[in-house]
Amino acid sequence: MVTYLPEEDRYAPIDTIDTTKVRTANISGTELRQRLRDGTEIPEWFSYPEVVKILRDTNPPRSRQGFAVVIDTSSGGEESGDVLSSALQSALNEHSGARRVTKLPSKFNDNFLVHELVRAGSAVILTTSENFDSIISSVGESNTYIIKSTGSDTGYQYSISDGPTEDAGTTCETAVEAFKANGFIS
C-alpha cells in the first residue's frame, strides 16, 4: 500500500517507512465514499483534480441524487395512488427547492425512464399495481421508497415501508421527513 508523506509532499510504500517517526496521510475507501456522499472536500494530494471531478459527477451528494417513490396500488386501487401522488408532488415541490419532481402516469412506469430521471437528480413519483422489483433494482434500494395504499370505508390509507397506516396528509408529512432524514431534501 502507498501512503502520502505531507511533510515531504510525496508518496512512498508504507512498508518502507517508519510510521512512528514519519507523519502519513491516507483516506480509506469508506472515508472517500463518505466525502463523496456529503460533499466534503477531497484533499489535492489524494488524487488528480480531473479524477475527483469524475468521482463527484458519478457519485453526487445525497442532496443532488434523485429518488423514486413507488406507490403500490395493488390493494387500494389506482385512484388511491392518484390521490397520494398528487399530494406528494405538491409537498415535494414545496420542500425540494430546485429539484424536479416528476409524477409518472402508470402507463409510463418503464425501468429505463425511471432510472434516467433518478440519475438526472429528479424525484420520481409513480403508481403501480404490478411488480416493481425491477424498478427498485434499476434505481437502487437506498434511493427508492415504497408506499402501500389501501382502500377502506373511511377513505384511503397508506403506509411507508410497512410502517403505520396513515391518511394522505400524514403520509406526505412522514415521507418528507424521511427524505430530509436521508439527505435528499433540506
Walkthrough of the structure:
This protein is of the alpha/beta class and 186 residues long. The protein folds into two domains: 2-58, no CATH class; 62-181, Rossmann fold, CATH 3.40.50.300. It contains six helices and seven strands. The strands form two sheets. A five-stranded mixed sheet has the order 4-5-3-6-7, with helices on both faces. A hairpin with a 4-residue loop joins strand 1 (2-5) and strand 2. Helix 3 crosses helix 6 (168-181) and helix 4 packs parallel to helix 5 (133-139). It is elongated, with a radius of gyration of 22 Å.
Short description:
The protein has 186 residues and is of the alpha/beta class.
In DSSP terms (H or I, runs of 4 or more residues), the helix count works out at 6
The order of strands across the largest sheet is: 4-5-3-6-7
What count of structural domains? 2
- Sheet with the most strands, sense and barrel status: 5 strands, mixed
Percentage of residues in DSSP E strands: 15-25%
GO cellular component, one term: cytoplasm
Protein name: Sulphate adenylyltransferase catalytic domain-containing protein
Organism: Candidozyma haemuli
Domain Sulphate adenylyltransferase catalytic: 2-57
